[in-house]
Every structure is written in structure tokens, then in C-alpha cells.
Design a protein that fits this description.
The complex is a heterotrimer of chains A (211), B (296) and C (95). By secondary structure, chain A is mainly α. Chain A has helices at 3-8, 13-27, 58-62, 84-87, 90-93, 136-141, 143-146, 154-168, 178-185, 190-201, and one strand at 46-49. In chain A, α8 (154-168) runs parallel beside α10. Chain C has helices spanning 39-50, 55-66, 72-87, and strands at residues 6-9, 15-20, 23-28, 34-37, 53-54, 91-94. Classes of the chains: A mainly alpha (211), B alpha+beta (296), C alpha+beta (95). β1 (46-49) of chain A pairs antiparallel with β4 (34-37) of chain C.
């Protein structure tokens, strides 16, 4: 039963007075808890789910547009999914700990902002090498974290696509494994892959970042 | 078994699936085969005054009839999807019908989740793809649980109960043989390869779930399953506030329903115990589910 | 230290509130958005739904309600909560 239902239950006036008296008596004996010891995180945690249009995303499942032929892609199709900005938003990542980790994130399992990028996306296929230890968070932040500007944001787009697949699956329109397989077997250029991912990850319902 | 091919190729067949009547017309042989194998126990009619969905599955005209033929899905005269290879016609019917329900039926809060029932109370299993939801659902309904749906949880806004929509369970890749071995008596449709999901096959809904399709149930548990190879079975309570957000995120129409949608979601949270469930063995999962206690 | 700014729920905001354990989820009826809050942020919003308050009063009220010492950590957290809630458009400051 939710607290607000309990709160709405009425007390008689005498019960209320009795409770207040008892509370006063106990006040001197109650030591309030220190905030720091409550186990709360060090910054406010707010999760937001934006309202969105009715989900017409199932058509992404049966559309067949991901057969690999880019010319069949219908950019007007609206599917479930988030932009990279949303995946990186503070309300989705949660607060960053002193060790740099994000323990309260909302990314779909098994991925975390600390996941190693090249554990999923090959380093050696000529697309881009972010370094052996680069995390998803670092690749998303690229220049800030890794000092990289020349990657056409391809890694960021790949991560966004990967997270959308795992979060929304058929409602995003792609099967599990598609993002990694496409990266690892891509025969085009880096820019072409980034463009392809950009088109894919643009297929999201247009919700702004929560904050 | 009835052979519906003549009727489907003519004026069509009216099939009652849970609360919805589907009027299906198709001359495609694999569609007729799928309907015959998987829908023969459902109430069906040659004529009816009303149907919730009028669906056509047709081969695409022109040169496509000869070269890599394709199938087109239309619903009430509207074509919502691009065509698929002809071989995928029956899966397209199933996916397309799910789409029709999820996008058009708004007297229910509809959540992307499996629902199973026992003794009048139901468990909702929301889960993103790849979590093993459908495999788990298929196993449970072959071990005494009643199938409501493997895909669409429907919470009636008027009665405040979960309503069954028992239709074939969609299994993929390794799960197909896993469930065939786990439930040798289960009836399967044809395996279809090279879809966006890999190889898919549909398991017929158990007879009892079809016969009891008018019996609703109270929601009692919300369980987020996660298959993890080698894992011991672990059922852990999860915070209700987080579950509320997750349920909303997995709902097709909570935004359209606005305040009513939020009130419905929060009522489900009020009524249910909420858990995360990690497992690797189906028998472990069956035991955990059978031992579930009713919420206090 | 909390300053003397007064805060209130933003004009036009309508809130449906649900709480489970120490966490809150609200539906904001103007936007249709749903938000979940930690214990303190939820308490801040709940107090502002009742009436306009300055930060000092908010800190003291939360201190009493949640039985937390009204120290610097709590004050800072309340301030941060107000900033986040303001960013969501749920609360606004009387200038």
C-alpha cells in the first residue's frame, strides 16, 4: 500500500494530540541522523520519462528495412529509441562517483558507462581505435575524455545504436548483435558507418533530454 | 484439423483471439498452414457482423511475384510496413497483429511484457528482447501456468484486471529446440529462417489457455527476468518507484492514456510485489515461480 | 548556508503523487512526464506543493520530517534539488 494512502487516513483529534505530546517527549531523546550517514547519494537523483507520441514503433520490427540496403531506409519512420544525448543525460547516468563510475545508471544490461568499448567493437578493422581501455563513457565524450576529434563520432553512434537495440529491441527495429556485427564486418569507410549509425539513431521519437 | 485455406483465400476467416475478433484474408499457403496448425482450437467463423481488425496478407504484385517474392501486410486498408520476404508471411501476421493491438486498443493499458496466471492471480514479466522472456513464458505455460500473452500485457482500465490474449508464443533461434525438448508435446508451426530476429517459430498456445481466454486475473507480481548462463536462480525484491518508471517505459500507450495511464501503472505497482529474477535453468525458474507468495 | 529565496511549484504544473518506501514518483499532468525522486528531493517538492517556502524553512522542515540533522550537507542537497527541480520546470523561484 502506498504511503499516500496511509497518510490520508484520518486520526481523531485526541489521537493527534496524543501523538504530538509523545513526539515532544521523545524529541529530547531522538538524535537526528547525520545526512552523510544516511547512505543517500551525494547529489539528487531524479529519473524522468518524457511523455511521447503513441508508439508506432512496431512497424520497425516488420518493415524489413534493416536488410542492409540503405536505400530502402524510410527516415519518416518513428521508432522507439533514444538519442546519444539522452543516454548521456545526468538523469540516465546518475551521479558520478569519486572513482569515476556511475552506479545508478539506467543503461540496459549488460552495458554500463564503464564497459570497455573494444570488448564489443573491434579495434583492428580500420574503423576507429579508441584505445584498449577506453570505456563507453569515454568514447561518448571523445574529445573531453580521450582527446579525439577525428572519428566522425562513429563510436558514439555505435554505442547509441547498441543501447537502443538492447533497450527497445524489435521496437527499435534491429536484432541483438546487429551493432557489433555491423561494426566488426563493415567494409565501407568510417564516415559511411557513422552516417549509417546516425540515420539509425535518428529513428527515435523526438523527446528532448530530460533536463 | 480444419483446413482453412479455402476460406482464407476467399471471404476470409473470423478468428476470436481473447477479446478481439480478427478477420484475416490471405491466399498465401504458409499463412493457411500456420492458421491451421496454431489456431484450429480458437473460435472461428465464416461470417461475422464485426471484427476488430481486418487484415490482408498478400503477395506483392508485379515482377516481385517472380523474383524474390514478398508479402505485404495491410490492416483496415492501411499498409503500415514495408514488405517482407514471402517465406515470412506467417510471422508477419503474428507481428503485425501485435502491432495492431498495441497501436489501436486504448481501453487497456498495454505493456510490452509476458503475462502468466495461476489460481486467479497473474505475473507480469516485462523485459527487453534478449532477456529470455518468451522462452521463460513458454516453459512456464508447459508446467501448469496459464498463458495470457508472451508479448502484450493488457490491463483493463474499466475492470482493473489483466485480460488474456493467448496467441502463439514467438520463439527464436536456440530457444526453439530448447522448448521443443522441454515440452515435447507442444505444437509448433514451421521454422522460418533469415528474419530480422534470426530463425523464428511459433508454439501453439496451450489448449486450456485458449479455452479460458475470457477469464481475467488480478495482477500480483511484476517480475523482470534476466537469463544469465550458469547463474543460480535469484529472486530479489526491486524498488517499486524504479519498477513504476520501468513499467511506464515499457508501456505502449501510457502517454496516450495520460493521467489514466499513470494511475493504471501505479495501481499495478500498488497491487504487486516487484522482483528481479536471474536464472539459467528452466526447472529452477519453474520452482521459483511455483513458490511465489501472494502479496501482503 | 541556505539563502532567502522563496520557491514554489511552477504555475500550471499539476502533480499526481505516488510514494513507495522512501521514494516518490510523480506524474506532471501538463507535460505528461513522469519523474522519480530520491527521498530528500521528493520531500522538497512535496513541501512546495503545500505552499511557497524559502530555503531555510525547507531545510528545517525536511530535517524534522525525515529526522535528519540540518547540517551543511543537507542544505547543499536541498539547494541542488531545487536547481534540478527548477531545470525540470516543476518549481520556480520568487525573485
Amino acid at each position: 500500500m502506498s504511503d499516500d494512502i496511509r497518510e490520508s487516513q484520518n486520526m481523531s483529534e485526541s489521537e493527534e494530540k496524543t501523538n504530538l505530546v509523545n513526539e515532544d517527549k521523545q524529541a529530547a531523546n531522538v538524535s537526528r541522523r547525520k545526512f552523510a550517514k544516511l547512505g543517500l547519494l551525494t547529489a539528487p537523483v531524479i529519473m524522468t520519462l518524457n511523455s511521447r507520441p503513441v508508439l508506432g514503433a512496431y512497424q520497425c520490427t516488420v518493415s524489413g528495412q534493416m536488410s542492409g540496403n540503405l536505400s530502402n531506409f524510410d527516415s519518416t519512420v518513428q521508432c522507439a529509441g533514444n538519442s546519444e544525448l539522452v543516454w548521456m543525460d545526468a538523469s540516465v547516468l546518475g551521479p558520478q562517483g569519486s572513482d569515476g563510475t556511475f552506479l545508478a545508471h539506467s543503461w540496459p544490461a549488460p552495458f554500463t558507462p564503464q564497459s570497455i568499448f573494444h570488448n564489443y567493437f573491434s579495434r583492428f578493422n580500420g574503423i576507429f581505435d579508441y584505445g584498449e581501455t577506453a570505456t563507453f563513457y569515454q568514447v561518448m565524450k571523445r574529445k573531453q575524455e580521450l582527446g579525439i576529434t577525428g572519428d566522425n563520432k562513429v563510436g558514439r553512434k555505435a554505442i547509441g545504436t547498441l543501447l537502443n537495440i538492447h533497450q527497445y529491441g524489435e521496437y527499435f527495429g534491429l536484432p541483438v548483435g546487429w551493432a557489433e556485427n555491423t561494426w566488426n564486418t563493415w567494409a565501407g569507410t568510417r564516415r559511411e558507418l557513422a552516417d549509417f549509425c546516425k540515420v539509425l539513431n535518428a529513428r527515435f521519437l523526438n523527446t528532448p533530454p530530460p533536463i | 484439423m480444419n483446413d482453412f485455406s479455402t476460406q482464407l483465400g476467399g471471404r476470409g476467416l473470423y478468428i476470436q483471439t481473447g477479446p478481439f475478433c480478427v478477420h484475416l484474408q490471405s491466399s498465401i499457403a504458409t499463412v493457411a498452414d500456420g492458421i491451421t496448425q496454431l489456431y484450429s482450437e480458437y473460435p472461428s467463423f465464416k461470417e461475422k457482423d464485426f471484427a476488430d481488425f481486418h487484415i490482408h496478407l498478400d503477395t506483392v504484385a508485379g515482377i516481385r511475384r517472380l523474383i524474390r517474392p514478398q508479402v505485404q501486410f495491410s490492416f483496415d486498408g492501411y499498409i503500415p510496413f514495408k514488405p517482407l520476404p514471402l517465406d515470412q508471411a506467417f510471422p508477419m501476421f503474428e507481428w503485425g497483429l501485435n502491432w495492431c493491438v498495441a497501436n489501436n486498443i486504448h481501453e487497456y493499458l498495454i505493456i510490452h511484457a509476458a503475462v502468466i496466471e495461476k489460481n486467479g492471480v497473474a505475473a507480469i514479466l516485462p523485459a527487453p528482447p534478449g532477456s529470455g522472456k518468451s522462452t521463460l513464458c513458454a516453459a512456464l505455460v508447459n508446467r501448469g501456468w496459464r498463458l495470457f500473452s508472451d508479448e502484450l500485457a493488457m490491463f483493463c482500465l474499466r475492470t482493473r484486471m489483466l485480460v488474456p490474449l493467448p496467441r502463439p508464443v514467438n520463439l527464436k533461434n536456440n530457444s526453439i529446440n530448447l522448448i521443443k525438448n522441454y515440452a515435447p508435446e507442444a505444437i509448433f508451426g514451421r521454422e522460418v529462417s533469415d528474419t530480422n530476429k534470426g530463425t523464428v517459430a511459433h508454439m501453439k498456445a496451450p489448449t486450456e489457455s485458449i479455452l479460458r481466454a475470457a477469464e481475467a486475473a488480478l495482477p500480483s507480481w511484476i517480475i523482470m527476468p534476466r537469463y544469465q548462463e550458469g547463474a543460480k536462480p535469484v529472486l530479489e525484491s526491486r524498488p517499486k518507484a524504479q519498477t513504476c518508471m520501468d513499467l511506464a517505459q515499457n508501456s505502449f500507450n501510457y502517454s496516450l492514456l495520460a493521467e489514466d495511464g499513470f494511475l493504471a501503472i501505479s495501481e499495478l505497482i500498488d497491487k504487486c510485489d516487484c522482483y528481479d529474477f536471474t536464472y539459467s535453468q528452466l526447472d529452477d525458474a519453474i520452482k521459483i515461480f511455483d513458490d511465489l507468495e501472494l502479496p501482503q | 548556508m541556505p539563502d532567502g529565496k522563496h520557491w514554489r511549484v511552477s504555475a500550471g504544473v499539476g502533480i499526481i503523487w505516488r510514494s513507495w518506501d522512501s521514494e516518490s514518483v510523480v506524474y506532471e499532468s501538463f507535460s505528461g512526464d513522469i519523474h522519480s525522486f530520491d527521498m530528500v528531493t521528493g520531500a522538497v517538492l512535496k513541501l512546495l506543493v503545500q505552499h511557497t517556502q524559502d530555503e531555510t524553512t525547507l531545510v528545517n522542515s525536511i530535517s524534522r520530517t525525515l529526522e535528519i540533522e540540518p547540517d551543511h550537507s543537507l542544505s547543499l542537497f536541498v539547494k541542488q534539488s531545487l536547481v534540478r527541480l527548477s531545470g525540470l520546470g516543476l518549481v520556480e523561484c520568487d525573485k
